[in-house]
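sorry for the late reply, my laptop died twice this morning and i had to redo everyting from scratch. anyway the thing you sent over, i finally got around to it. pasting the sequence first so we're on the same page, its 332 residues, then the predicted structure underneath. double check i copied it right bc i was rushing
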Amino acid sequence: MTAAPVLSLEGVTLDLKTGDDYVRILRDVTFDVAAGEIIGIVGESGSGKSMTALSILQLLPPKARLTAARIGFDGADLAGLRPAELRKVRGRRIGMVFQDPMTTLDPVVQVGRQIDEAYRIHHPRAGRAEAREKSLAMLRLVGVPDAQNRAKQYPHQWSGGMRQRAVIAMALVNDPEVILADEPTTALDATIQAQVLDALMRARDELGVAVVLITHDLGVISQVASRVVVMYAGGVVEIAGTRELFADSRHPYSAALIHSRPGAHRRGEPLVAIPGRPPLMSDLPAGCPFAPRCASPYKSERCVTQRPALEPSVDGRLSACHYRDEPQEVIA
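ok and here's the structure:
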């Protein structure tokens, strides 16, 4: 990574209250995001991807217990900020794009007016004309045609892909340094998905914003991300450049994810699913969390009894596997 990190997570750990007990949802999550970089976070449902993003801005359930060595952003530690200080960061310097735009957009308020309000919240001295000019500029940036007239419409008059572009425009309107995009292309068809990804790439190219893209779709990651953080059972198991990850994974879970994706097989061959299911966060095994599902020929008793740390392999890539220096071939 050539650019200096704009966001840096070090040892982020999160416990959620369930009944009378706390359950550890995130374990020692550590990675950096460079200015102007699109980094992908991938993993199965329940791996901790979305909770990682929510932990950055501390948009957490009641009684959540967040401990972190550091969530570094512009010289500050977000984990130690008071609520009033965090409000100056949320939406202003770090924007959030959620999976379903209808949970973000108010159905009875014009789209443009909602983006105007997002700007004026953080710029209270701005007038209506200034806010509208900024909103229209962002709508045009993300590819909304006839933005001036479309801004006067209501969310139900926009398609799903267009609504998602509006939410991206809302996240960009305050010129943030980072955008956290949580499954922004899920439930969209391939054509609209490509348009939404193009909007994120335009934001990166024209505004220099860094994007943390959370998705279960490895095809999406291969198109836009320069690096990938692979998560499993609440922890990071591999961090690698996108090309390196797809060509030569250093963790058997990463290799299994890539092998099981549609398009990874010759025509007519069945998809190969990862056997078993992810462990319950309340009942993780003593060793590697992936060991019960691992089909690596290198799997040993050590995998079952000792949890591997996230450490560099011989080529410098980070992997939480005891056999990170061995080729991770998938045994179907």
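The radius of gyration is 21 Å.
thats about all i looked at so far, will dig more tmrw
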